[in-house]
Description:
Helix content: 25-40%
Distance between the termini: 52 Å
Radius of gyration: 18 Å
Structural class: alpha+beta
Number of helices: 4
CATH class: Alpha Beta
CATH architecture: Roll
Mean pLDDT: 86
Strand content: 25-35%
Number of domains: 1
Low-confidence stretches: 20-24
Amino acid sequence: MKARSTVVLLVLAVLLTVMLVSCELAPVSIAQRIQYFQASLNGDRTKAYKNLHPDSSAYTVVGATTDLWDLKFPTADIPYTISNLPADPNADPANVTAIITGSAFNVPAKFVVQLYMTNDWRIWDIQLDEGSGYRSIL
């Protein structure tokens, strides 16, 4: 029985190590994170908050509810695309501009992103310009 427990602990330790190393080897760029957010808008909106930075107030406030996303990005306008993202990987993370388009939706947007861990960009804020200048939706 003791040998079996030791083997189970060893396997768990190896799996944990692989998970930690794979996170370091698979960085998430600013553009990738925004594409993941787009996929959440078009798919399972309860997971959209996972694209937000865990230290941001929005992460906790928005959580797994879809109320905010449904209000600002109506499901009737799916599919959404986020285009005109900067091609430069060194773009200013405090001012990532894009265009969010749905079937009846076309709004300039700014994303403010911050690093989470060492190489995983997460969304800190989303600002939309719905005609009167950019305003945060989070």
